[in-house]
Amino acid sequence: MSLVKCEKLENSAVELQFSVAAEDFKAAVDKVAKREAKKYTVPGFRKGKAPRHLIEKLYGAEVFHLDAINDLFPAAYAAAAAEANVEPVSRPDAEVVSSSLEDGVVLKVTVTVKPEVTVGEYKGLSATKLVEAVDESRVDAEIDRMRHRNARTITREGKAENGDTAKFDFEGFVDGVAFEGGKAENYSLKLGSGQFIPGFEDQMVGHEAGEEFDVNVTFPEEYHAKELAGKPAVFKIKLHEVTMEELPELDDEFAKDVSDYDTLDELKASIRKNMEEQADKQAEVAVENDLVDQVIASMQGEIPEVMYENRLDEMVNDYRYRLEQQGLKLEMYLQYLGQTVEQFRESFKEQAEKQVKIRLALEAVAAAEGIVVSDEEFEAEINRIAESYKMEADKVKALVSADEVKKDLAVNKAIDLIKSSASITTETKTQEASAE
After folding, report:
1. Most CB within 10 Å of its CB: which of 27, 55, 168, 250?
2. Bridge partners of 246?
3. pTM for this one?
4. What are the residue ranges in the chain where pLDDT is below 50?
């Protein structure tokens, strides 16, 4: 491949013109002829048995040329883009300028490329690190969650209370007529959870196992089943069982049962420490985001729309893949949400645009600083990925692009540089201040 020219066009597009040598083109044509000749029919010969020169005489001397060009194009195009030092971000619009066995092939490609952007000042920025204080109430709330996770379920003797779980049969009626989807047997419901329409669970409270009674409610005006929206309904209830949680005593024995600590005070201290570490990490992330936002605000350059569209596609496809890992199709999931694919895709738009801008800004910082990634850093990252996914390092290398991994590492080093040069003030915020 030989790069003929690289001409910049409007809107981050370029025109690349490159050639493929005659000997390479001829070799590709010969290879295609061997592969494709069997598809052609020539009178007097069984299909696939006609000699090449007769196929070319009957179907045209250039019958195998286009397939040969298609075979050569990917590698030649990639080499031309690399030599021109451009990074395509869209599908190429290609055309053949000329082709012959004597002179080879000349190709012209128009493609959108990653834009050249610049950033303003990225060193000496200022940010405030707001670390949320961990007060006793947060520790107590976590202890309470642990108690509920370790609670025993026992039968309630007497009337049902909020927080109890009721097992019951029900059938709903509107204007005295049972409606579709309004009947179930041995249904379990935690009272006070708000799973049923307003008023239903409140009327379950105060009844005992074995009772049969009516619950009178009105469906909300915005109820998803339009034929029921806003209408009064009666549910016939047969209450089979009421169970309640019996929480463990809050003492040192509880701490021993649920953790590696011998006392409740030690358990609380550990919870506090973990919460404080988590709060500090969250504050660090917030500082990074603030600093990067400042860099983005100073960025100059026109970003092609296709980059946003590409990122949107990646985000939707990633979501689709994660759903399929759970055995659910995206289209079915969106039916549950009452959304179209277009609406779902649109919901990622702001996030996608932000991610594209972040990447471009940090790549610009890395380029301005001449940040390079050493072989040792690359190998360390491969080993980290391998360990994370329980794979062999060689298999990871076969699956990932070395260039992309190094770009990711360079971007991370750019973030570290921005943070290390920034003036960061640390403040503690209380839970009340956070709520405001």
Report:
1. 168
2. 152
3. 0.75
4. 433-436
